[in-house]
Design a protein that fits this description.
The structure is a homotetramer of 337-residue chains. With 337 residues, chain A is an alpha/beta fold. The first copy, chain A, has helices spanning 13-22, 43-46, 63-69, 82-91, 108-115, 122-127, 133-142, 151-165, 195-198, 212-224, 258-265, 313-327, and strands at 3-8, 28-34, 41-42, 57-59, 72-75, 95-98, 129-130, 145-147, 175-180, 203-204, 231-236, 243-250, 272-274, 292-298, 302-309. The first copy, chain A, has two domains: 3-148 and 316-327, NAD(P)-binding Rossmann-like Domain (Rossmann fold); 152-309, Dihydrodipicolinate Reductase, domain 2 (2-Layer Sandwich), CATH 3.30.360.10. Chain A contains twelve helices and 15 strands. In chain A, strands 3-4-2-1-5-6-8-7 form an eight-stranded mixed beta sheet, sandwiched between helices. In chain A, strands 10-11-9-12-15-14-13 form a seven-stranded mixed beta sheet. In chain A, helix 7 (133-142) packs parallel to helix 12 and helix 8 runs parallel beside helix 10 (212-224). The two termini of chain A are 20 Å apart. The relative contact order of chain A is 0.15. Chain A binds chain B through residues 175, 177, 179, 197, 199-205, 207-208, 231, 233, 235, 237-242, 244, 246, 248, 280-284, 287, 295, 297, 299, 302, 304, 306, and chain B through 175, 177, 179, 197, 199-205, 207-208, 231, 233, 235, 237-242, 244, 246, 248, 280-284, 287, 295, 297, 299, 302, 304, 306.
């Protein structure tokens, strides 16, 4: 079985990575590439590495064209732009995987506070499925609209899910110190993203005000069954790809051997790897893969959990393809191992 | 007034940086360079950037030579090596600034646990002054032996001193998430320090077991007047120089406007700069300088403090020269601004 | 059809890249991994990124084991080591692709001069086929032993082949200014390969004495039908992967539109891409791929040719798999696009 | 003696570096900082590293203000902008050191071809002195207007001057393969200068069309006494600072021991260092200094010369201060060693 897939936002980082992954997928034909701003042009002019591998032309998104040529559409668009397209595509009876934040937060007020824009599609928001396979695989199977998680959120939620779901930690104590490579920032032409500003530098940004905070809190709250809040400080690393999150929590009770508990929690998961005691993840082991590596350090009163992912793969396009594989009953690791 | 200064360990990172700073010092003549292992050789053969600026020959340390040619000796040596030299030099009536850890921890058992070696010089350890000018300037003035602080320790202690000294925080709650450039690791020929291992990578190491932990705890304990412990996770950044520490603490009571409080605490300090509210330090602003930049984010219950230093200057050789300036009553910023 | 493939030297850079490529190959089963020095150990302990994808154990090479389990063996070994293994494996009737320099130079004296060792296998050297598919595909098809080209050599030979083969340039005038990422240097634990030595640095090395010079000259001489010599200066770039060679030659005669001539020369080649006039290659377009990109700037008297490859793929393991595809009549781009 | 110095263009890279150097100069008071576009603001808000060291306000350039407060003005401005200011300042009787290209090319037609703008100040162009101290020290001493050389030009001219001045090489044969760090490109907000575009990449640009070509040719022509042309290909290195030029020439005659000849040529020069035979420059030895390091490899027919400088110091602001020292008879190395 082969499906026809379109990408809106094909010229951004997540679009580029999606093309890269899908070109290796035996059950997918990339049928259409769209972007919202430029004149039609060959994708291989934007990304010369695709020359000789993908010669599709990228044009403005058109609903008739989508109706005729796509079974599924990936929205690799900026936040607040996706919700202009998703309802129209869903109305055509097509499936949608949205890589923006538009369908991640069920609470519209919180969305509007953190994304500084009105939400325009409450109807579909209600039915959107949060696309972390490790937690919501059953729902993803039946989903028409998947809200693909944020990169920081993926790294934090996978690291915390066992502790939170099993009620092992003080829910007021979660501190997430996260560090991301530059590709997490998208393709904006900003002074702060110039080589001379980033290279040989390191800094925190959006200190405890980042828009992934409410995303993390809301999913952890769902897992815990009661309100969970987090402290969250993201930092910018002078490198291309990867997120490493160092997470500090206080335990309640006297659990021990958390590494074993994590191994059980994730035992059938193809993309979560738990480190042996005393070993911790590093970016090099996950960049270029769809894996999330997790290491745990447990003391009497507290736990340190460190997780690492490729922000563009498990943190975005890789996880999006994993979700697609689940929706279409393809083997979940297809094109991702 | 000009003093004659010797450096033992001149060919390491901190030795190199010491030479670089002292060459600009109008009251210092670098009279002797020593290292412990190699044949005599010109320092400009090891560091070609000194060609035409410093043509001293580096030879094995010799006490008679020191007696005749040095007023002060910097020990830029590995931990557990300094204590072989300090007592002999002090016996000559010369002053010593030790950049290793050998005289930082008053508790010999703790030293031996973290540095895996017997301490050989309890006598001088007792009188050694911990060289953070912002806290112990009066003692440094009269010191014969200064224990120059560790790089991580400097960044953490300066960031926490006001909160701890004024009793504003829960002393069990301190979490220090620190990130250092590679020069912090010294010049070892180790697989983990190869370009291909470090570049485009990021990882934690010595998770909550690093030897600077007891150093930080012991100084904070002295400041607090009661036992303080810290959680400490260092990480390796793919860049040359700089430490940025992101520190999380829980408040007790309802203080506000901590930035002002920090400004008061450090108001006469030439090398501590407090950021305006909403601004945070970055490595680029401090690398190449002796400054420590500090930014503060305060919430109802907790505080996030971020500090940045150049690990080889304020974190090592710069602070050592600052201590020397104090000991000899030179203007404190000489050669450092 | 599926073949069983062994790799000797699986824990080096080219071994790692070979595993990575071959895991994607539908007609290959990696049946055995060997390395020459260590105790048996899981390959995923050396390269944690393979955890969950390849759990083979790496052990000392054993001829009986090879006889029973491999159709083809890749030698991903240091120079002068391969020739200890190749003759034994060939005697078993197995095919060999050697990624070292041991079978590249037909002239044994030149080999011994540049590699400082006696050649031990003149017999097989005679029949070894130099593995640049674009020039020697017909021979590779029938080869038992392929000498896989050097990384610098591949980038220079592909850039110069049309000009040299068609007799368009002064054969005394070739200057190759080449720049390589650090992975070209292999995995040695050398001071010059430490992060602090390479990062933010750039330097030439082996100025006009590098061992790839005679390899390039000998192949160009074969193409020209008369003696060709080259000036060759390699440089070390502060990055992981990629070689960019800037090549200067003087024309004889008045050719024009060399870009067209290059396009014709390489018109059926799946992995050579010629840039439009005024456009030049960059590393980002080829790193992670098996492509060689070439750009040309032509003046009245001289030509500048710039080529770019991934040193570990088209410059080593990718080209090795391309050669294997040709030897076994698999589609030539399998696992490489 | 202390002079009052103004900088127009204080917020660019060369402005920043000028401030940094001049703050260490005992005979200079930075009296005024100007920039052409923004509202008045403290320089330490633009460059936080100057906080506590330089608190001047940067405002629009004003001739009356300059008349009252400056003895010398540095123009750290983009090409074609300097010539709007230089004539006015010179008319006030003040001295000018221009870091742009506006006064480097005596041939106005060549200027206009390479800089795409009319030249507006032919009068002062005639008397401007090209500011390479090693070649034109006597003229610099008496100069009112110094045209500070381009960064690539400095690296190429110092490397070639002995060979060209002594008539040892074929003047048609000069090939300059130059590699520069990103700070050479100025502070433009361009896609090509984003971290994600530069990091882990390497590419040539302006292949044989760069605007420093005619500057190099014209100075070499002056030195040779007859027309010299050069082939010049610049490349972009993924690092902050430094230019390394690898230069290929054909000899005429049979000179030998060129290293000695270079040592004689530059024997009284404080900032040119000639490498021993078999040793070659690297960026790390010169970055952060005003030195130009030169290494030479001589064969029967050809010579390879490699030179390295810090593009912002010897290639711009350092050399500008060296010129100032000469103009005011300060010791030439003041603030530069």
């Amino acid at each position: 079985m082969t499906i026809n897939v379109g990408i809106i936002g094909a010229t951004g980082h997540t679009g580029e990575e999606l093309i890269s992954v899908l070109l290796k997928h035996p059950n997918v034909r990339i049928s259409r590439l769209y972007n919202t701003s430029d004149e039609p042009h060959k994708i291989s002019d934007v990304f010369p590495q695709f020359k000789g591998r993908c010669e599709l032309v990228c044009s403005k998104p058109d609903m008739k064209d989508i109706a005729n040529h796509c079974d599924l559409v990936f929205l690799a668009l900026p936040h607040t732009v996706s919700m202009n397209f998703a309802p129209k595509i869903l109305k055509l009876g097509k499936k949608v995987i949205d890589l923006s934040a538009d369908y991640r937060l069920k609470n519209i007020k919180v969305f509007e506070k953190f994304y500084h824009a009105k939400h325009k599609d409450a109807a579909n928001l209600r039915n959107a499925v949060y696309g972390i396979p490790e937690l919501y695989r059953a729902n993803i199977k039946k989903a028409k609209l998947v809200a693909n998680p944020g990169c920081y959120s993926t790294s934090a939620i996978l690291a915390l899910a066992p502790l939170v779901a099993l009620g092992l930690i003080d829910k007021e104590s979660i501190i997430i110190d996260a560090k991301s490579g530059v590709s997490g920032a998208g393709k904006k032409l900003e002074k702060g993203l110039l080589f001379l500003e980033v290279n040989e530098d390191f800094r925190a940004y959006k200190v405890n005000t980042h828009q992934h905070m409410p995303e993390i809190s809301s999913i952890l709250t769902r897992l815990a069954g009661k309100s969970v809040s987090v402290t969250f400080v993201p930092h910018l690393l002078p490198l291309q790809k990867g997120i490493l999150s160092t997470i500090y929590v206080r335990k309640i009770g006297r659990t021990q051997n958390l590494a074993n508990l994590y191994k059980k929690f994730y035992k059938n998961e193809p993309f979560v790897r738990i480190k042996k005691e005393g070993e911790f993840p590093r970016l090099k082991d996950v960049v270029g893969t769809n894996f999330c590596d997790i290491g745990i350090k447990e003391d009497t009163k507290s736990v340190i959990v460190i997780s690492a992912i490729d922000n563009l793969l498990k943190g975005a396009s890789g996880q999006a393809v994993q979700n697609m594989n689940i929706m279409y009953k393809f083997p979940e690791t297809t094109a991702l191992l």
